[in-house]
Amino acid sequence: MKPEPEVVEFAQRLADAAGDVIRQYWRQPLVIKEKFDASRVMPSEPVTEADRGAERAMRDLISATYPAHGILGEEFGETNPLAEWVWVLDPIDGTKSFTSGKPLFGTLVALCYRGVPVLGVIDQCVLGERWVGDGETTTFNGKLVSAEGKDRIENCLAYATTPSMFAPGYETAAFEALRRRTKRTLYGCDCYAYALLASNFGVDLVVEADLQPYDYLSLVPVLSGAGALITDWRGNPLTLHSASSKGRVLAAANPTIHKAAIDLLRRPPLDLYLLNRPKLAISLGAAVAMLGALLLGNSRRLF
């Protein structure tokens, strides 16, 4: 369902409200706290009053304007999650960049209808850059954009926020298989990498893991509206309820490189899997070897 123009305008008002808060804290002394989630590959994440204040500003606007709508936000969780229309908010995607004064973060706003993202905003408030997509068209600062990308994966520039986001074993092996096939891999952009892909600014692929719905749902209408593809690592759509994705996201500028990337991510070579298997398995193997050597040494002394 395509959102009405007034809803698109309201989504941008949300981004404006978040930006008004965020700019007050930009490159200023910050109190940085840590939040922990032991279930994630990267269990510790920073949070600031800029994150919390920006989300509060957006929530207040939604509650006042669309009280029947649900909300899912990174900082304050769910409100009315079973509503037909649910706003999904990440006030600062890339808090590590924000706290280090690097302008490669963004405010993410998504609107989902029955779980499907139908509207997305990526806003970079200190650079004055905004991408708005409804799944059919995407604009960058009011002008239509279109992703194109390279014709072969070997010519592609790929992005990931950090190699540390991939769990040891399958995820690390799959990412390494993709990294080896692309021309170049860069790190450190968070949502901004997806925006660059949508605008055809030279990014062809983004591959990430350990993401939450508020990290990726706004990206879906923006990338789709620009003609790009964004799915999980198996090629399935990303929705509010796509738990099977396990937070693994792949964005590609065109179908050719999307298929090539999916093939690599599905079946990484066995040698890469063994090389990147969980450290616990390596540690246990090393412990067994050490124990065997110790027992052998003791037996020689005893006999």
From TrEMBL:
Keywords: Hydrolase, Magnesium, Membrane, Metal-binding, Transmembrane, Transmembrane helix
Transmembrane segments: 280-297
Cofactor: Mg(2+)
Gene3D superfamilies the UniProt entry points to: 3.40.190.80, Fructose-1,6-Bisphosphatase, subunit A, domain 1
Biological process, per Gene Ontology: L-histidine biosynthetic process
Positions annotated to bind Mg(2+) 1: E74, I92, D215
InterPro entries referenced in this protein's UniProt entry, alphabetically: Inositol_monoP_metal-BS, Inositol_monoP_superfamily, Inositol_monophosphatase-like
Signal peptide: none
GO molecular function terms noted in the UniProt entry: metal ion binding; phosphatase activity
Domain of life: Eukaryota
Residues binding Mg(2+) 2, per UniProt: D90, D93
Recorded family membership: Belongs to the inositol monophosphatase superfamily.
Protein name from the UniProt record: Histidinol-phosphatase
Lineage: Eukaryota, Sar, Stramenopiles, Ochrophyta, Pelagophyceae
